[in-house]
Structures are given as structure tokens and as C-alpha cells.
Amino acid sequence: MSGLRARQKADRHRRIIEAAAELFREAGYEGAKIEAIAAQAEVSVGTIYNYYENKGDILGAIVSLEVNEVLNAGRGVVANPPANVGDALDTLLGIYIEHSLHYLSKEMWRQAMAISTQLPDGPFGQAYTALDRSLTEQIRALIARLQALGLVKQDIDGQALGELIFNNMNMMFIEFVKRDEARIPELRTAIRRQNRILVAAIGV
Amino acid sequence: MSGLRARQKADRHRRIIEAAAELFREAGYEGAKIEAIAAQAEVSVGTIYNYYENKGDILGAIVSLEVNEVLNAGRGVVANPPANVGDALDTLLGIYIEHSLHYLSKEMWRQAMAISTQLPDGPFGQAYTALDRSLTEQIRALIARLQALGLVKQDIDGQALGELIFNNMNMMFIEFVKRDEARIPELRTAIRRQNRILVAAIGV
DNA sequence: TTCTAAAATTGAGTCAATTCTGTTTTTATG
DNA sequence: CATAAAAACAGAATTGACTCAATTTTAGAA
Questions:
Q1: Mind listing the GO molecular function terms for this protein (chains A, B) (predicted)?
Q2: Fewer beta carbons within 10 angstroms: which end of chain B, N or C?
Q3: Which of A57, A137, A62, A138 is CA-nearest to residue A100?
């Protein structure tokens, strides 16, 4: 019935992702040749292309796993935010940023971001856009929660604010991954400073 | 003395850029083969790589020309801004956005942005980062001007505010070039809506 | 169990960016 | 104005992502 074929398929997917993740980590994205990934996954080159449209999509699958974890971690903050607008934002964005380099190197992020703008209609491009939207939505949800708690003015345009905060953080993160010597604490400090303007504007 | 070699060099640079610009326009970035650009520029493939590190750098040179024009156009607004904070911002950002598709197609922008994050240390990557900084700086200058005119609170953190506004606009522009069907008026409206929050916060 | 159509796999072949090496042109010096 | 060193050029060779036609494997009907 459901069996063999589906199981083999899932298994090959997993093997390809694991092989790619290992080689990307060891050799970098460019350094990891498709032939090497295929060999490591004990699969032929053609098969990889049966599962993923192109090399970027393999990286994309890995990045998606990571971002989904971040989204999950963020739920806790939205449900139970610190009782201070600035801290609440800092905590949520802090989770995004601190998680970001767990599995993915800066180089992998650079490649992933590049691919998502280069091929916005490819599988990964679309997935990445959706993930960005989910993150924006989560920030918007946090703002709504803070409004419910009476910490943020009721008449604030939550949608626009969420976009503003996400877009700024995302752009800062892009600059961060572009510079290998950039460090997370400085990134967070810079974002806090930018958000201070907003926090002052929206607090009750 | 200075002569022949330098002249030939400048001439070849120009021919390569012109050939590439024409082919990128006609065939798109991917569609424009290096061999074709070389043929059109009456130069060999090897010579192109003597002038530019890779295909992306050729596009980069073209993008830089465009962004520099935009920066020039922006100077006028900073020197003489509309007497209203929201309008002043909208006018400056409007210039950036309206100019953007003059010479460059969305596809060219996508490629250029992708390359600049993929190879941040390449010639174009560095140039692009510098251009972003110049644009941020110009927004900061506008804010300073508005402060001098008494339209913006004195105690506003102009640096952070400039970054916030630029980063948000830039991210919106990235999303804009990723969707072929996206239109400029809607982009400007969305950015105005986001900036409204800031305008409310910083006006005297 | 046996057979057949559909699905999946394979790896040699294609294509285009980039590199490399030998040649030509320019410069500057005696 | 001859010439050697330096700079630039040409295009053939390399490399690696991606394609495709042939082959193998699976599902399920008889």
C-alpha cells in the first residue's frame, strides 16, 4: 500500500539532506560539489535532481528547518512576553538572532539569501518568502499581545509596525552575515537602538 | 607617457560595459553569455576577465552607475525638502524608487542584490555596501535638515532613524523586485504607511 | 506467482563560466 | 631606434551544475 516506495523516498531525502549539510559545513556551499553530495548520500547525481530542482534547493531545505525551529521558539515569547515593550521586542528578536547560527554558517546564510532573491519563484524562493512572512506575522502577533496587555497604544497600526521591525531586523541580519567579523552582541545592540525610537512612539 | 595604454584600457572598459548593458537588457542576465559580450565588445573572453573578476562584477559596474545617479538626484531634496516630514521622506524615497527601474530591469536588480550578498568581499559586494551606506547617510542628512528647520524633534537619534527608514525601504524594494507583477505605486503606498508610524513619533 | 505500466534511478553528455598558458603589444631604457 | 621587461590579450582547456535517454525497480492486476 503506502509502503516501500514512500519509505525509500523519505529515506533518500534524508540521506541527501544529511550529506549536504555535512559537506556544506565542511567545505562551504561552493566547495560542496553535487557529485560529492551524491556519493556521500549513496545516490546518483540524477537522483538528487529528481528530489531538488537545483543545488540551492538543497540548502533551502536545510534553512527552512532552521527557520521553522526559530518560529517555534518564538511562540513562547508571544504567549508570555516580558512586561515591557522594549524588552519584549528584544527577547523575540534575540531568539531569532541567537538561533540563527546554530546549524547554519554565515556563508550558508549568504548563499541562501542570494538564492532566494535570485530565484524568487523556485521552490526555495517561495518557501523563504513565506518564512519571512511568518516571522513578520509573529512580530505583529507580539504587538497585538502587548496591546491586549495595555502596554502598547490601541491605535497603533500593528501590521505596518510589524513590517517595519521585521524589515529592519532582517536587513541588519543580512549586513551581519555579510561581514564575517561581525558579532551577535553588537548586532543586537544596534537593533535595540533602532527600535528604541519605535518603542518611544508606541508605548502607552 | 600616460597615453596609449590608459586610453585603450578606458575604451575597452566602456565597450565591455556597453555591450553587457545591451545584452543584459535584451537577453537578461543569465541569457547574456560571456562569449557574446566579448564578441559584441570586440574583445576576447580572457580580456573580460582581466577587467572584471566575474560576470557579476560587470553587472555591478552598471548598477553602481545607476545608484550614483539616484544619490545625485537625492541631493536636491535634502537641500530643499518639502515643509512636512511625511512628504519630505516620501519625496526622497520616491526618487530612489522611481529612478530604480530606469536602466535596470527587476531581473538585473535581483541578480545584483544576490551577487552582493553572495560575494560581499568582491569588488561589487564592497561597492554595493558602500552605496547602501551612502543612501542611509543621505536619509540621515535629510533628517538633520528637517531638525534644523524645526520640523523634527531635536532629541531624535538621527543615525538610528536613518538606518530604520533605509533598511525598511530597502527590504520592501527587495520584495518588490522579487515579484514581477508588483507595481511602484503600491510599493510607495506601503512604505508611506510604515513611515507614518515614525513620522508621528518624530514630528515636533 | 507472473506480468506490465508507471515511477524512479543512473551516469554519460551538454553547456557556460572561469582559468591558464603561450603570444602579442606597449613602455621605457640605453 | 633596437630591445628587454611588463602588461595585456587570446582562445583552448578545465570545471562543475544540470539534463536526458536508457535501464532498473516497484505496484498491483490477473
A1: DNA-binding transcription factor activity; transcription cis-regulatory region binding
A2: N
A3: A62
